[in-house]
Design a protein that fits this description.
By secondary structure, the chain is mainly α. It contains 13 helices and no strands.
Amino acid sequence: MKKAFIQLHIAVFLAGFTGILGRLISLNEGMIVWYRLLITTLTMWILFGFAKKIHRIPLTVIFKIAATGFIAAMHWITFYGSIKYSNVSVALICFSATGFFTSIFEPLIFRKKFDVAELFLGIMTLAGIYIIFHFDSRYKTGIIVGLISALLGALFPVLNRQFLQRINVETMLAWQQTGGLIWISCLLPFYLLWFPVEHFLPGLKDTMWLLVLSWLCSVVAFRFSSYALKRLSAFTVNLSFTLEPVYGIVLAFIVFNENKLLSKWFYIGFAIIAAAIILHVMLLLKQEQKSLTKTAHV
């Protein structure tokens, strides 16, 4: 359990850079995701292939994993779109709503009872986002797109947990990224027709940031979070990822001076979300203590 938490929080720390990178890369959100998937997919097949970590799986399972790759890709497109329509801080705050959506998806998919505490903490997070949405009209479009991203971001880890019960992490990740790349490659021409761009090829700086995004924030972070997902619930993983805004927002303040652009309502909403994170940590510690007590009595 302790190793899973360490792996999870390394992944969270790395994920905190994705928002900054989305702003630093000059390409539009569709092109960012396509290049990210291209680099990540090639890297995974080379690394995992040489290590003989990619196993044979049925074609039906490959199709299912590829479908979750499409969900993941759309999550990233809407996430970077939220950054373009608002800013890094607002997009990262919206990401916190994954806890709320997971508290609904996980019981429905795994056919278990709804956890009242998880729902309450998720609703607290959503309330913090609503305060920002209601009182600061400048970022409404970005918040709506960001909430769509959060919904998609909550769904694919829950689905991944089902796959990880039967196959290893490397096999799932390789096919998931491949599926996402294929789907986005098919849709990208239509996407670029609706959202035209000035240039398709990344420059030197964009290439450097795309490599950081793909290798550190994708290959390394996905592997750690997937290993953690084997031992922890999807809700715990997603709610722990609400720490991502903390890292990302601090970086946005330092790099882009976004603290000068945000109103007091942003900080009020963020305080509510931070309270939900603290309550969740306390809840986990209490559950861990109960587990240790039961073990001691056996």
